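pasting input
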Amino acid sequence: MAQRKRKDLQLSEAEWKVMHAVWECAPATARDVLDTLGDETEWAYTTVKTMMTRLVDKGALKTKMRGNTSVYVPALTKNHARTSALRGLLDRAFGGTMGSMMHFLVEEEKLTAKERREILRRLSEDQA
Amino acid sequence: MAQRKRKDLQLSEAEWKVMHAVWECAPATARDVLDTLGDETEWAYTTVKTMMTRLVDKGALKTKMRGNTSVYVPALTKNHARTSALRGLLDRAFGGTMGSMMHFLVEEEKLTAKERREILRRLSEDQA
DNA sequence: TGACGACTTCTACAGATGTAGTATCTTCAG
DNA sequence: CTGAAGATACTACATCTGTAGAAGTCGTCA
């Protein structure tokens, strides 16, 4: 099994959904997460609870009891998770370099004209 | 289980390795792939063979017998696979929009100065 | 012709992921 | 005090992923 350095945790699709909900309404209970997800999923309460328990194991969430209820907060920021996920994609699919992904984006027309302008604007103003 | 439209197949980490090898030396036998991978992995021959069989099932590879040996060719291009993978990352981690990923890249300093210059160059020359 | 090597198909098994039921416990409203 | 509502921990099970052994088949070389 590819054993990437601990700390570089990869989230599964379902886990991302839960994390998004937690980032949105932390500190959150499983019930809060279920409500936040709304009709985005049809999950049973226990499904969410199970995933949150696993996310605690993975180190993506922290939990604390309040009365008889577990309250969860993220153990990493959304940006941190995004960075890991991106890193994973880069490693798997783009030979590990940002450059080759950018090349792909630019050459393969994955960007709309609007996105291009936006990026140009940001990059150049930031660089000045 | 999140049931994305078939066709939008997501490759696992090990599968990416195999696919990279096949793209590199197609048409390729399992042996070719194993050789191409070199010391990148310690896989047994049958491990590679199993994965290639699964990739055929998934529709990522096509196979044909030559004598008593299976010869494989990719059933999708690297760019196609990259697009799917990127799409997956976008959906999972960036709310499904390219824009928010680019925002992340630009604002979060994920790019080196060199990469920025490179992107600027490509974008602007392409846009002219 | 028989052993060796290369290939194939089958089977296996552990860990991760998706999804949820069940049994139990806590609390609050009557 | 009792029961419903809601929380928890445990258990379960199918599928996917990573990894590979076992057994059978075929061609070749001595």
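fyi Chain B has six helices and two strands.
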